[in-house]
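Q: What would this chain look like folded?
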Amino acid sequence: MRRTCVIGAGPSGLAASKVLASRNVPFDCFEAGSGIGGLWRYGNDNGMSGVYASLHANISKESMSFSSLAMPEAYPVFPHHSMVLGYLEDYAASFGLHRHIVFGTRVTSVRPLDDGGWEVVCRSRGGVAEETRRYTEVVVANGHHWDPRLPAPAVPGAEEFGGTAIHSHDYRTPDPYAGRRVLVIGMGNSACEIAAEISRTAARTFLSARDAAQVFPKMLLGRPADHLVWSPLSDLPRFLKDPALRLLLRLTRGAPARYGLPEPVRGPLAGHPSTSDELLAQLARGAVTPKPGVNSFGRDTAVFRDGSRESVDAVVYATGYRISFPFLEPSVFAAADGRTELYLRTVPPRIPGLYFMGLAQPSGAAFPLLEPQAEWIAELIEGAVALPSPTDMTRAIAREWCRHRKTYVSSYRHGIEIDFRSYRRALRRERRAGRRRARVGVPALPAVAGPAPAADAL
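A: My prediction, written as C-alpha cells:
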C-alpha cells in the first residue's frame, strides 16, 4: 500500500499535508517539536527556530498568505511573528491537519531501499528506541533557516576574542547588549533588524558587511514594497526594470551615501533584498555605524578591511544558514555550496520517490508557491503526471543554473534564489506537460523557468 512520509510541520510541511489530505493520499507528517509552525514558533522546543521576540514579517500579509486561506483582514500590514504562527495554526485547523502529524518525533534516517521505497527511522522525544517505518515516497520539508552558518574559514583571531559571540539564530532580545559595544556581521534582513534594535540601548553598534547591499524600505510609494511583484514594473525587461527600480529607490529612500553606506556595484535585482525601515532610521541618526568586512579580531577589538579598528565586546554573526538534511546520507542528497541539483527545485532527477519542499527562495513571499509545488508533488505520487527523463531533467537543471549565474550574486545565500513569477509559471507549464506525458506514456521536454531577466521582481 502506498504511503507518504512528510518531514516537518512548518509552512512547507503544512502545505504538503494540506494538499495530500485533500486528495486522500495516505501520509504521516513527523514534527520534532510539540507544535506546528517551524521557525515561526517562538522558542520552538524542536530547537530549530531563530525567531527573536520583536520580529515582524518583512513581507506584507497579502503577499504572505497561502492561496487557499487569506491572513485575517485585522492583521497589520507586516504581522508580528505570533500572528503568523496564529495564522498557521488556523490553517492547520481549517484543513484538519493535526490528526496527520506525529508531534515530538524526530526523523533520524531516510534511506532508499533496494526494492523501491524508503526506510524512515524516527525517535520520539525522550524515547530510547528508534522506530523504523517503510514509505513509498518521502517529502522533505525541514526548512532552510535552522542550521546556523558561520564564516568559513573563521575570521583570524575569532577564537581569541574575549567578549560574547553568538549567531543571530540564538538572538532573542537586545537586553544583554545594553551599554555595550556591539558588532553585527552581515547585511541580510536579520542583520539589519537586529543591528537597529540593539542600537537603541547599546553604547555603540557597528554593522559590518563584506559587500555593499541594497537596503529597501518596507513601504514604497505608500504600498508594501513586495507589492511591486504585481505592478507594471515587474513586466518590464530587466535592462529597463533595473534602472527603473534604482530610480524608485533613489526617489523614495535617497542615495545610500546619505546613510553612510557604500553604493552597491550590482543592481537591486541581483541579490535577495534586505528590507528595514528601522536600520535606515538608525543609520541616519548615527546610532549604527556601517563598516566593511572584518579582517581580524583581537581580545577586545575588531580590525576591518579599510584598516580601521574598533573596541568591541559583543559580536552577533548574522551570517545565514546552511541547507542541511541530517537524516540523509550525503551520498543520497546534499546541497553543496548552497546549490540544490533539483528539477524545478523539487525533484532529484535520479532518485525516485524523493521530493523537496520550500527550497526555493523568492525575493518576495514563499508561502504562495508552496501549495502549487505540493499539488505537483501530489500529482506525481498519484501518477496523474509524469516527469521528463532523468537526462532531460539534468539538462534542464544545468540550463537553469546557467541563467542563475548570469542573474544573481554568486554566493551561498543566493544558491536557492528564484524569481516568484517565473517559478510559478514554470510549475504550471510542467504540470500541463506532465499530464500529457502521463496520457501518452512518452517523455516530453521538461518545462524550465523562463529567462530570469524578463521576470525578476521584488
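Residues 199 and 287 are 6 Å apart (CA to CA).
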